[in-house]
Amino acid sequence: MKHLLQLLLLFLPVMAFTQVVNTEKLRLDKEEKGFFGEASLDLGLARNRAGQTVRLGTSARLELRRGAHRWMALGAYNLTQFNDVDEPGSAPKNFANNGFGHLRYNYRANRWLTWEAFA
After folding, report:
1. CA 115 to CA 107: how far, in whole Å?
2. Max Cα separation, the chain?
3. Does the reported pTM lie above 0.85?
4. In contact, 78 and 96? CB cutoff 8 Å
């Protein structure tokens, strides 16, 4: 059964896009205990002779620290669309449509060792 699962995963077509993110830079507070959070919303509209561009973005950052345990959740989404003046009935064209999510757990065993799991 184990070999069948490995073989299935080998031939299963999966496409995932990855990116490198420095999550240490995104931590809200390194030493204080408790719950911390931050959220943002970005809206934009630009019009010119060619058409209009609509931009929507949102992001959130949450962190919980209690004793030796630390949880961190990050998320973001961006959408940018362009509507062409020459084609008023056409569907908007997406220039950017991307998102990001990250969940991290840390357990500080002692001063020099911290266990970590993330997805």
Report:
1. 5
2. 64
3. no
4. yes
